[in-house]
Amino acid sequence: MFECECLPGYEPKSSNHWNRRDGSDGCVSKRIGVSNCGDGDGFVKVARVKDPDTSKAAQLLPNTSANECEQVCLSNCSCTAYMSIEWEGRIDCLAWYDELWDILVHTEVGRDLYVRVDKMELAENTRKSKGFLKSRGLLAIPMAAVALVLIIGFACWWLKKKRKMKDFVEADELEDARTHPEMQFFHLSAIIVATGNFSPVNKLGQGGFGTVYKGQLANDQKIAVKRLSKTSGQGIEEFKNEVALIARLQHRNLVKLLGCCIKGEERMLVLEYLPNKSLDSFLFDHTRSSLLDWKKRFEIINGVARGILYLHQDSRLRIIHRDLKTSNILLDAEMNPKISDFGMARIFHGDQLQDKTNRVVGTYGYMSPEYAVFGRYSTKSDIFSFGIILLEIVSGKRNNGSYQEDHSMNLIGHVWQLWREDRALEIVDSSLESYHYDEVLRCIQVGLLCLQEDSEDRPTMSAVVFMLSGEASLPSPQQPAFVFRKSSCVGGYLSSPQGFIC
């Protein structure tokens, strides 16, 4: 069924192609080359429209009423259409100054688009339907209940995705786009509107590669937008890597990727919105930490473990995250953990067990010694990071804190000392009113096993999940690798039985 139709004031560029149900040539203005500016021209309302492409000279005018938006567009002969957008109690204006591309009419959701036409077309559309708005402000009656697909530049829905990729995804920046048809590519205008033009009020957090904002789409779906900083260390390769990886991963303990946006220097990930933010915002806050009882903490530990197991073994790929830490574990409305931030992740192929890099990235305090010193990473590097996370969840303390009178020992060293003295339960977070002693001791022991200095001595993630279930007897941990805090050495000293390495 041919479902393409031109906007009011437009006609098919090729009647012959259109009659053969080929709308790929799109539509053109009926009065192309003829100025209709200031001669009774006005606007026709098209209801329930998806925001057109903003790559063709669109402008966002904040705090601009619908009437003001109309006058702004009417006073500029280059303005072809405008849209009034309500956002959290305020009204913004989005105006277009060129051809209109990628237009789709929905059956239920969408916004009103006001398309500029000359006085003859305005009169004709007013006679045909009472659902249009003149430039004088005559209110419209709603359009017909049955929505039609309107394509300008793109004619048919089956061409929409292909053309959309071409316009929004730079081929030299994201060659994997066509291999992931399930991926949604968002218009920059939709992201601008959703986040209130990246309002500081909607800022959720900031990391090494950019800022994360809360947003709300036209269909009321809440999203989190990770906006890559132009001055960050993450280039297009890391961004491509993150998009390609998350698109292929589906697990209840991994953050879900909804899509992305690439326009010029702007690169953004659109992720599911998780209202409780990151785990560290609870663990290391004296007030909020009490909201995490032992049952919930143990569930979070197991959830993170299952998420890592999926990355290492159960997915179609073998993935090393390389930046596991409590700030990269997000919590949904039910406080279920979800691993996020895959910009530094790497895929292992075939029988590959480890790799090496000259560019060590990640967070000191969570890095395994072989990675921090020699740049070698493997699944056992992630397991070391998980061991840190586990001890931080149990204790409510940061690994990079100081736990000796001379401020020389971090959390790992402190836990190891208490473990050897059979005082391990002293490390438990004081905000916990009650807990299962056996579960806590098991978690501490598993954490120490994950922190063994030699990567070969650390358990696999499948073994960790099994040990946490309580169905396995645990081996005794040896002295773990740990970091002494010392200001003269960036990152600290790595302590081992063989000595110190700076």
TrEMBL record:
Classification via InterPro entries: Kinase-like_dom_sf (IPR011009), Pan_app (IPR003609), Prot_kinase_dom (IPR000719), Protein_kinase_ATP_BS (IPR017441), Ser-Thr/Tyr_kinase_cat_dom (IPR001245), Ser/Thr_kinase_AS (IPR008271)
E.C. numbers: 2.7.11.1
Family matches, as Pfam families: PAN_2 (PF08276), PK_Tyr_Ser-Thr (PF07714)
Catalysed reactions, semicolon-separated: L-threonyl-[protein] + ATP = O-phospho-L-threonyl-[protein] + ADP + H(+); L-seryl-[protein] + ATP = O-phospho-L-seryl-[protein] + ADP + H(+)
GO CC annotation terms, alphabetical: plasma membrane
TM region(s), chain numbering: 137-159
Occurrences of domain Apple (ranges): 37-118
GO MF term set: ATP binding; protein serine/threonine kinase activity
Residues in Protein kinase domain copies: 198-482
Protein residues bound to ATP: 226
Keywords: ATP-binding, Disulfide bond, Glycoprotein, Kinase, Membrane, Nucleotide-binding, Serine/threonine-protein kinase, Signal, Transferase, Transmembrane, Transmembrane helix
Gene3D superfamilies referenced in this protein's UniProt entry, alphabetically: Phosphorylase Kinase, domain 1, Transferase(Phosphotransferase) domain 1
Protein name: non-specific serine/threonine protein kinase
